Amino acid sequence: MKKTAYQPWAAALVTVLLWASAFPMIKLALHDFSPVPLAALRFAVAGITLIVLLGINNPARPAAAGAEIYTPMIFLRLGLAALMGIAGYNVLLNTGQQTINAGAASFIVNTVPVFTVILGASLLKERFTFWAWVGMSISFSGVALIASTQPGGLSFGAGAFWVLGAAICQAAFFVTQKPLVSLLGPLRTTAIVVIAGALWLSPWLPHAIAEARDASWTSLATVAYLGIFPAAAGYATWSYAQAHFGASRAANFLYLVPPVAVAIAWITSAETPNTLTAIGGMLAILGVGVINTRGRG
Questions:
Q1: Confidence label for 1 from pLDDT (cuts 50, 70 and 90)
Q2: For 37, which of 128, 153, 203, 208 is 20 to 30 Å away at the CA?
Q3: 18 CB contacts (<8 Å, ≥6 apart)?
Q4: Is this structure's pTM higher than 0.85?
Q5: If you ran DSSP here, which 8-state letter would residue 202 be given?
Q6: 130-148 vs 275-294: helix crossing angle, rounded to 10
């Protein structure tokens, strides 16, 4: 099918909608599932979906990505990316969302670019500028304000603490997978990482199946939705958007995720953020904006 001008924009906006919907849907699924089994079942569904998607639309590898590219180091990097970006991120996010609301979680997760810059400076020796410090300070003040409205604040074991850990895992995932995309292509990299993430979580799959036997049809449908749409289709549409816009420009669309997540949570669960959460969320997004526009050396 011939690509038209609106398709990359549609792919980016569909990604925003799907990823934003994940936060309130996770909250709903946690009524009947524990955090780790929920992640295991969700990504078993996502892995199967992506295997089917790759079978239907097998993307061409870049010219450099011959069989010799799959070295032990590449497999190690893929495994680490899956451990942090799929298993670690989702287990921590699910754990955090047991006690904090979907809107607050989406605002905290949106600080991923802050941690990406920190890890890039630490591990990849990327430049850490004055404006990066400014943006980091603004974002962290926003996260602290959001956490102050949630049970336990940012103390160890509190919901906001685990969601902040999820954001760090996601940042580590982005740093780890960055060189893989140019070698293997975005969709192929995403598919391998998601499937590997499902394998990391597979020891908890029997527990998930046991919980599924007692779960409501609403919860089962929610898990299926999370696996097929935000996890599988969302990553696929994001890969398509990144291929057109480039990683930096595409990242600007992610500013829309928290407000859309808040709107969906309000519609599905009558969940409305209080004033402090809203102000903290705006500060968190403002800090990310400063880093993305001025803070990268």
A1: very low
A2: 153
A3: 229, 230, 233, 234, 237
A4: yes
A5: G
A6: 160
Question: Amino acid identity, residue 140?
Answer: F
* pLDDT one-digit tens code per residue, 34-76: 999 999 999 999 999 988 877 766 655 555 545 567 788 888 9
Give CA–CA dist 33/95, Å, rounded: 11
Q: How far apart are CA 285 and CA 138, in angstroms?
A: 9
Distance CA(127)–CA(184), nearest Å, equals 27
Sequence-separated (6 or more) residues with CB below 8 Å from residue 73: none
Tokens of 84: 């942090």
Residue at token pair 């899956």: 82
Cross-strand bridge partners of residue 296: 128
∠ CA 173-177-183, nearest 5°, is 170
Who's near 191: CB < 8 A, 6+ residues apart? 50, 51, 53, 54
Nearest to 231 by CA among 107, 94, 99: 94
| Token pair belonging to 243 | 């291929």
- Phi, psi (5° rounding) for residue 36? -75, -45
Nearest CA to 262 out of 105, 148, 115, 121 is that of 105
Segment 78-128, tens digit of pLDDT: 999 999 999 999 999 999 999 999 999 999 998 887 887 777 766 666 666
